[in-house]
């Protein structure tokens, strides 16, 4: 039988050519699926029609924005997840939701293959294929750029030869991936890691060096979820969008990093993630106020592991599920308000209040009304230091 392929379609050069290329090289019929994860830019209906014009037998758009915000971005916020302490997992988070829609489309259209536009050098091929094979072991995966030698030059030739409705001259020298959680830019002159990023790379954020009046914002959380901004109810998607605009206006969330890819390469990425970085700053601070010390310390390690799993393409894994259960528990008390000043590339917390606060004024104060019994400190210190004091004494005895 003829293969039927569902292709993850972005509307760009590689996946537009991919439609005809897959057909030419394998004889398969191609169904295009564009998933809206809040990437903005071109109208999704224009993208849907372009796929048909490029030879797709069917073309669909899946609006996954709310689902992406609620089921992928929110857990990342509850974890304060930052890969290598820096990268808020922009692309990594979007792959599993795209996978879900690809698999659903494969079932709907009776396809036996799922294709994507990734190269053979990155993380995203792993995330797509591990996800697809976990959810639907009967599907096979195809990456035309990697498996059918669809190089950039061939793609441009093909588009011109076939008269595809894409502007090959507008192809940027950068590889860009974006969604509502942020934007990733790589390749081009950035591959020399001594080269500083230039202003034109950015689109979610303004130059933080330009002086502007500060913006003050109050974010209300309910069990780790942002539910109000300046007193107005928001969905998770709205919270991200509003904070993208407000934090982006002050140049917050620009990240220039050399990171470790799963396939063993160190690569340089420029990210901008204004809303998420501001939300994570606020959420972390409310964690500090409301989560008991041992649980808080432990959860930092959990967050790191969570970020590594998601980065490494193991969203659909028992450990990620289990860690999310623990993070739900950690977030059970994370309700209250955080006030921040947005200015000069930074979101700075200036106030916090919560009914679930563990901050006790009486215990903390140096003024009158102190309820902390300082006389207990002496004995505590004696016992706390006992093991290390004994070890020091032993070493002095033996080694002098
Ligand atoms: N390095 C990041 C990651 O693996 C971003 C990759 C995004 N892709 C791109 N074409 N820039 O999650």
Overall description:
The protein has 400 residues and is α/β, with parallel strands linked by helices. It has three domains: 154 residues, Rossmann fold; 178 residues, Argininosuccinate synthetase, chain A, domain 2 (Alpha-Beta Complex), CATH 3.90.1260; 38 residues, Single alpha-helices involved in coiled-coils or other helix-helix interfaces (Up-down Bundle). The chain is built from 14 helices and 14 strands. The strands form three sheets. A five-stranded parallel β-sheet has the order 3-2-1-4-5, sandwiched between helices. The chain has a five-stranded antiparallel β-sheet with strand order 10-9-8-13-14. Strands 6-7-12-11 form a four-stranded antiparallel β-sheet. Strand 9 and strand 10 form a beta hairpin. Helix 1 crosses helix 7. The longest helix is centred in the N-terminal third of the chain and has 19 residues. It starts with a strand and ends with a helix. The model has no long low-confidence stretch (mean pLDDT 97). The structure holds arginine (ARG). The site of arginine has 9 residues, from helix 4, strand 6 and strand 7.
Summarize the topology:
Blueprint: E1 4-8, H1 13-26, E2 29-36, H2 44-53, E3 58-63, H3 65-79, H4 90-108, E4 113-115, H5 124-135, E5 140-142, H6 144-147, H7 152-162, E6 175-179, E7 182-186, E8 215-222, E9 225-229, E10 232-233, H8 236-248, E11 254-260, E12 266-272, H9 274-290, H10 293-311, H11 318-331, E13 336-343, E14 346-353, H12 361-364, H13 375-384, H14 386-399
Parallel strand pairs: 1-2, 1-4, 2-3, 4-5
Antiparallel strand pairs: 6-7, 7-12, 8-9, 8-13, 9-10, 11-12, 13-14
Bound molecules: arginine (ARG).
Arginine (ARG) is lined by residues 91-92, 123, 175-177, 184, 186, 269.
